[in-house]
Amino acid sequence: MSGVNGLSDRTRAKWAGAVDPEEIAKTLPRMLDLTTENITENVVKINSLCKDPRLRYLITKLVKALHDYARDVNLQFDEWEKAWQFLTEVGQISTDVRHEFVLLSDILGLSALVDSLSYPTVPGATESSVLGPFHDEEAHSLELGGSITAEGTPGEPTLVRGVISDTDGKTVSRALVDVWETDGNGVYDVEYEVKEEPNCRGKVFTDDQGNYVFRCVKPVAYPISNDGPVGELLRTLNRHWFRPAHMHFMIAHPEYTKLITALYSRDSNYVETDTVFGVKQSLIVDYNWCEDLELAKKYDLEPMVRTIDGKEHKGFWLLEKDFVLIKKSPPAPRKVRDD
Amino acid sequence: MSGVNGLSDRTRAKWAGAVDPEEIAKTLPRMLDLTTENITENVVKINSLCKDPRLRYLITKLVKALHDYARDVNLQFDEWEKAWQFLTEVGQISTDVRHEFVLLSDILGLSALVDSLSYPTVPGATESSVLGPFHDEEAHSLELGGSITAEGTPGEPTLVRGVISDTDGKTVSRALVDVWETDGNGVYDVEYEVKEEPNCRGKVFTDDQGNYVFRCVKPVAYPISNDGPVGELLRTLNRHWFRPAHMHFMIAHPEYTKLITALYSRDSNYVETDTVFGVKQSLIVDYNWCEDLELAKKYDLEPMVRTIDGKEHKGFWLLEKDFVLIKKSPPAPRKVRDD
């Protein structure tokens, strides 16, 4: 026991004086005997004291949506209990690098929807795609042409390059290209039980002509994390939990809207049934087999041997993809009421 | 790195062979270029493989409700990001005895609504009220007349007694009365930084005539836990976070529907503005001042001294409340489709 009146100091410090609860209580309607019919309007009223108009709008609509849902399906106590226990597990398995709520949002299609709402397609610009749960700020910075994969990473050698420009056709220099992918086993660095250095992720800046280039491994299709509550949910739903092979890109420059997208491999399984609904036709790319060993040498890329028609060929995969950014514009006002 | 292909054994063991993802993928519609308009129907289709009709219904309606909400408010990426970070925090502050998601559900009125949907009022029976986040199975079992509070617990001495019967007027013997409350400082045992034995909670069985009786302290109004993300939300919403003084009851017997309810003190602040929307008129009770020292002695209750009209009086608080249970009936079929 510690603190005033036995309440822990931490708890007490936070609530004391922040607002005067008796003053607030006076401004509220009398709320007794709330029923399934009148509870929603009362919860909306109690939340109407919020001073931020956008948050007030978001929370008002959320309460209505949640309550309408519960009434509509006639949600029962044991189901509600399972739901909050599930959400607790989702939070508890999360770490700095494992974002299980993002995964949950992903498999419910909410991430893809929010992506579409936030970044509507602009003619000529590269389309966006879902962020996914595995972005990590702690990636290494690379020189142009450097490798995002550590020595000995499983996977087939790949060179990725292209030009970043804007919708006016102007190339963008000093754009930050932040890229992340699975290794050749379909596993992100943070999924391994022991993670040493960041791997299969890196940041590189475009040069004066807007060029980027880096080395990596060819990504493969993989199961999303399914050793947690979201995996259990997918199993119960009888859904598959695979994503097609892809490489994530986050491209940032002070003058442009940040582009969060991913490139999907045409030759991969699940391109048409991605369990997180991220694939767009314009983001499907080809990894071309390349035997230009001069190019490999230039980028210090160790070629692999591939048997084609019974003959051994030395080479690597080449992915060439340009990105088109959108100039930043003042943020549009956000909806704060229904029209 | 461990396990097949470097995937952790735990992850691999769980997904291998559970379902055949390629078989499942074949049964799905082609899902590419999902837009804000067509994503919902596609997510519904992918979930339609679920074999449990109630879960399929719940998840289908949930996806629709979530997506409709996001479209309606035009949910933006940064707001979505704050939301999943918030939910992660709610999970992470939770423990075996602190159920922050229950608290979140409580302050959004969802708990009260689910309570009403699950336990509709039955004429003559005691009304239900919200469970709250502080029920703990680990309470001590008491003899009839025993105390739920440990020696030295702050608070005013109180005796609670009554009869448990059913809607036919038949008394119910061997009903388990599980009760929990704050101490006189408005703090639950599990909220203290150091929790030793369970305190201010206990379980007692009714006798052959349906009587229950126990000693406790008079509960007081208190702030709900607000040192976590739900507290931050309440602060941002400019809401107060007080509950009126109350005592929780969970009454169970194999032949009756479990009653989860609470008794609210008429003399308490916030009876009309309970931040979790739990108060019903029929659950408001009076603690009567009692100077029957024989009764106190019978139950080994240490009286307190109270000054009334300048004169010292020795006595204690007496709460008398009967409960009426509902006979168990076969569970009604749950909704699995819209009519």
Automatic annotation (TrEMBL), chains A, B:
<dbReference type="InterPro" id="IPR015889">
    <property type="entry name" value="Intradiol_dOase_core"/>
</dbReference>
<dbReference type="InterPro" id="IPR007535">
    <property type="entry name" value="Catechol_dOase_N"/>
</dbReference>
<keyword id="KW-0560">Oxidoreductase</keyword>
<dbReference type="InterPro" id="IPR000627">
    <property type="entry name" value="Intradiol_dOase_C"/>
</dbReference>
<dbReference type="Pfam" id="PF04444">
    <property type="entry name" value="Dioxygenase_N"/>
</dbReference>
<keyword id="KW-0223">Dioxygenase</keyword>
<feature type="domain" description="Intradiol ring-cleavage dioxygenases">
    <location>
        <begin position="160"/>
        <end position="188"/>
    </location>
</feature>
<keyword id="KW-0408">Iron</keyword>
<comment type="similarity">
    <text>Belongs to the intradiol ring-cleavage dioxygenase family.</text>
</comment>
<dbReference type="Pfam" id="PF00775">
    <property type="entry name" value="Dioxygenase_C"/>
</dbReference>
<dbReference type="GO" id="GO:0009712">
    <property type="term" value="P:catechol-containing compound metabolic process"/>
</dbReference>
<protein>
    <recommendedName>
        <fullName>Intradiol ring-cleavage dioxygenases domain-containing protein</fullName>
    </recommendedName>
</protein>
<dbReference type="GO" id="GO:0008199">
    <property type="term" value="F:ferric iron binding"/>
</dbReference>
<dbReference type="InterPro" id="IPR050770">
    <property type="entry name" value="Intradiol_RC_Dioxygenase"/>
</dbReference>
<keyword id="KW-0479">Metal-binding</keyword>
<dbReference type="GO" id="GO:0018576">
    <property type="term" value="F:catechol 1,2-dioxygenase activity"/>
</dbReference>
